[in-house]
């Protein structure tokens, strides 16, 4: 063996030895950090160095794994996931306490946050989020998103146009099976939010609508597959994650381009004395800032076009997908519990009359109908993990030290199915929301729209839509199963939300 060969061998051995030492030091440091954090963090499972608990989680039914951890470790537990601290909250009082704290109003720093760049309202933080929430609240209330006041009729009429169009479509089916998870129902719900935000109504088979819905559906699926990228993962896994992020980015850019075309159309016809929709409201705000010379302060200095684009995207995703899925679940439960459907129909007939359509003024006088919708929201829990918050600074919660940047996840599905809070939570019982006086009651542990400072901004609109669509459909139709079909499963498929499996129904016109 030559001296040169021996030198090469020694160098190779030295490199292996250095790599082994570096790996050992890394593992030791990772273990040290976990031990140090364990002294002040809530209890929870141990993970593996660098990856934390990530190897024990999957994209499918993550909420069930989290529920299991809550049962094992208690109302507040924690684990690390690829360097991130994750806190699970399964007690409704603790969730409310946490989400009322200013230090827990952030959003997790993940791949999607990198794509949207801090724009919008749903995922923005700090002063931008505070100002946009206040602005949207005022504008949407002025446009009728309220159960009181004369502007409410504008919103009610907007919704009822789509409800009437949908019922007419169902009447034309003449009792033939229809797939509720495709087509007309989604179109009607989309048109409510699109008319409110940008004065656009899509027609059936509109290629713009079909393309947009494809991108939304694909976006939800891709986002559900997204995980933070770690340098310690296999290269193929890192490549897969980055490909997902790239697809989400391209999807987001295409949607943003469509929204920008709407913004430009509005600019060409803008009249500051006639505000038609949310886009106009933003254009007016931009105009005032330009006149006041404060454009550098508007949206905290961010690009106005991108901000309006993201606001439209936020409201579409929040105001369409969740409403659609809730109504789909309502139909699933009506098929499984026809006696509940009959009670709802009898109440509406008694209060509204057989030949009038339910309106918002009837809402307070329909306690069983309200209670049924609440039970649908509780039982389906379409956002089983609520909305993830993040700490903006170190904070003490329930006696534990929570570090800056920790993800705080409310286990909404766990709370809505906790036998210590609900009698027979596995059962579908609207009566649980009605008190001894026959009035509707909402327990503190009922959290379908979240709680705290970042509670769902569109809760009132969602309740309006759910009530008007649900009550009108049951007033007009019996929801039946096609001959020979089996009842749809009551187990959801999980991405970002729980959604019922595809199923067909017969909307049979009622004999009145």
UniProtKB/TrEMBL annotation:
Listed GO CC annotations: cytoplasm
Cofactor(s) annotated in UniProt: heme
GO process terms (BP): organic acid metabolic process; xenobiotic metabolic process
Binding positions (heme): 456
Domain of life: Eukaryota
Key words, A-Z: Heme, Iron, Metal-binding, Monooxygenase, Oxidoreductase
Molecular function, one GO term: steroid hydroxylase activity
Cited Pfam families: p450
Keyword hit for Glycosyltransferase: no
Family: Belongs to the cytochrome P450 family.
Record-given protein name: Cytochrome P450
Organism: Acyrthosiphon pisum
């Amino acid at each position: 063996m030559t001296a040169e060969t021996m030198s090469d061998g020694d160098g190779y051995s030295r490199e292996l030895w250095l790599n082994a030492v570096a790996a050992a030091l890394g593992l030791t440091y990772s273990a040290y950090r976990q031990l140090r954090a364990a002294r002040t963090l809530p209890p929870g499972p141990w993970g593996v160095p660098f990856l934390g608990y990530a190897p024990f989680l999957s994209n499918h039914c993550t909420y069930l794994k989290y529920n299991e951890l809550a049962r094992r470790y208690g109302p507040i537990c924690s684990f690390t996931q690829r360097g991130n601290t994750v806190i699970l909250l399964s007690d409704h009082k603790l969730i409310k306490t946490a989400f009322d704290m200013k230090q827990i109003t952030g959003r997790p720093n993940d791949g999607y946050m990198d794509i949207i760049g801090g724009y919008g309202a749903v995922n923005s933080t700090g002063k931008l989020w505070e100002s946009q929430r206040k602005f949207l609240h005022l504008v949407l209330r002025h446009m009728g998103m309220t159960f009181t006041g004369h502007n409410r009729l504008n919103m009610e009429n907007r919704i009822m146009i789509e409800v009437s169009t949908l019922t007419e479509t169902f009447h034309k089916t003449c009792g033939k099976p229809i797939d509720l998870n495709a087509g007309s129902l989604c179109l009607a719900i989309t048109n409510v939010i699109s008319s409110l935000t940008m004065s656009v109504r899509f027609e059936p088979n509109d290629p713009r609508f079909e393309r947009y819905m494809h991108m939304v559906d694909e976006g939800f699926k891709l986002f559900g597959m997204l995980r933070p990228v770690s340098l310690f993962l296999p290269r193929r896994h890192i490549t897969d994650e980055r490909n997902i992020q790239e697809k989400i980015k391209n999807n987001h850019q295409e949607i943003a381009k469509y929204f920008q075309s709407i913004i430009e159309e509005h600019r060409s016809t803008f009249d500051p004395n006639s505000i038609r929709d949310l886009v106009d409201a933003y254009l007016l705000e931009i105009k005032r800032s330009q006149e006041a010379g404060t454009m550098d302060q508007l949206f905290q200095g961010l690009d106005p076009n991108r901000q309006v684009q993201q606001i439209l995207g936020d409201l579409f995703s929040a105001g369409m997908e969740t409403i659609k899925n809730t109504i789909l679940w309502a139909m699933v439960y009506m098929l499984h519990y026809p006696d509940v459907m009959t009670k709802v129909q009898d109440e509406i007939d008694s209060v509204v009359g057989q030949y009038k359509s339910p309106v918002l003024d009837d809402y307070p006088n329909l306690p069983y109908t309200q209670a049924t919708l609440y039970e649908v929201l509780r039982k389906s829990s379409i956002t089983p993990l609520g909305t993830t918050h993040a700490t903006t600074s170190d904070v003490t919660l329930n006696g534990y030290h929570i570090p800056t940047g920790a993800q705080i996840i409310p286990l909404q599905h766990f709370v809505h199915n906790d036998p210590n809070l609900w009698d027979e939570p596995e059962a579908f019982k609207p009566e649980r929301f009605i008190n001894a006086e026959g009035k509707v009651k909402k327990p503190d542990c009922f959290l379908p729209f979240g709680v705290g400072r970042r509670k769902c901004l569109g809760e009132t609109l969602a309740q309006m839509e759910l009530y008007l669509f649900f009550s009108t459909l049951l007033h007009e139709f019996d929801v039946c199963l096609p001959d020979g079909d089996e009842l749809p499963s009551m187990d959801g498929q999980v991405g970002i939300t729980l959604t019922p499996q595809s199923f067909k129904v017969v909307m049979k016109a009622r004999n009145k």
